[in-house]
Amino acid sequence: MNTHTSTVAETILSQLGGFKILRTMIGVTHVLSSDRGLDIRFTARNEKQVNHVRIELNARDCYDVTFYQIRRGGLDCKVIEKACEVDAEDLIETICDTTGLTLALPRVVGLNA
Questions:
Q1: What's the burial of 55, exposed, middle or buried (CB within 10 Å: 0-12/13-18/19+)?
Q2: 97 by DSSP, 3-state: which?
Q3: What's the rounded Cα separation, in Å, for the pair 52 and 65?
Q4: Which of 54, 103, 56 is CA-nearest to residue 79?
Q5: Which of 51, 57, 69, 91 is least buried, going by the fewest C-beta atoms within 10 A?
Q6: Considering the entire predicted model, what is its pTM?
């Protein structure tokens, strides 16, 4: 893995809250870096039966996000939805809106006050 690949994948993972948060919130089992982004496989059940998300940095410095349903050991792969030109600040919202899953704990104001 070259430095650019590592940096892109680490940046995306950081923007999503990190591996520990993803594992806790949606049951991430695999995170794979690619030349242009990151693939995430998870076990959390959702309405659209998405269990794999591919996030790729495009030429416009935005993300293209593809949602998959992968079954039978990878032999059956179906694209559920694709979102193009997603800004970094909209990445979590795009994943949450498409899958119905929550990637972050809500912030409680005044809990320790």
A1: buried
A2: helix
A3: 10
A4: 54
A5: 69
A6: 0.85
- Asked if residue 113 has pLDDT above 60, the reply is no
| Interhelix angle 3-15/91-99, nearest 10 degrees | 60
Nearest to 36 by CA among 16, 79, 66, 72: 66
Of the candidates 80, 86, 84, 85, the one whose C-alpha atom is nearest the C-alpha of residue 99 is 80
Q: How far apart are CA 27 and CA 44, in angstroms?
A: 6
pLDDT tens sequence across 49-98: 999 999 999 999 999 999 999 987 778 899 999 999 999 999 999 999 99
Token pair belonging to 2? 């070259």
